[in-house]
Amino acid sequence: MAEPDDYHSLFTKQQWLVLFGILSAVLLAAWVGQPPRLKVCFHADRLPCPDLLRAEVRLRYHDSKATLTPFCTDGRSNGCALRRARWNKAVCEVHLLLPASEALLNHEMNHCRGWEHGGDTRAAYAQPWTPNWRLVRSRGVQPLE
Predict the structure, then answer these.
(1) What is the number of structural domains in the chain?
(2) Is 36 among the domain residues?
(3) pLDDT tens-digit profile of 85-123?
């Protein structure tokens, strides 16, 4: 008895459809799980970025570099933001040398919002900042779109 040629194929038509459906579902799940398209914040050196971290912010002002340096270990800095994030809780301590400019406060607040600059120079600060997804994800909040 002769068998049809398609009987010897690797999968039947129904098996191919099931395989295609499974692969489509996996790709859709991977696409849905991606971080939002918000990838950069322009002018973060002087304007607020969207708040990705939603941290509790504590401001600490210092009268001298001597009291600032134990917190902000870079002696060139007039401020820093120290962030700690765990599931459902994030705290950001901003340490600023007085008198603190609005630009410095905004810079450190953008770190509290979950953003990073590429280096420690004025030129790097002026470039678009990127989200710190590791920190945002550890916070356990859904990033804003």
Answers:
(1) 1
(2) no
(3) 887 789 999 999 999 999 999 999 999 999 999 988 889
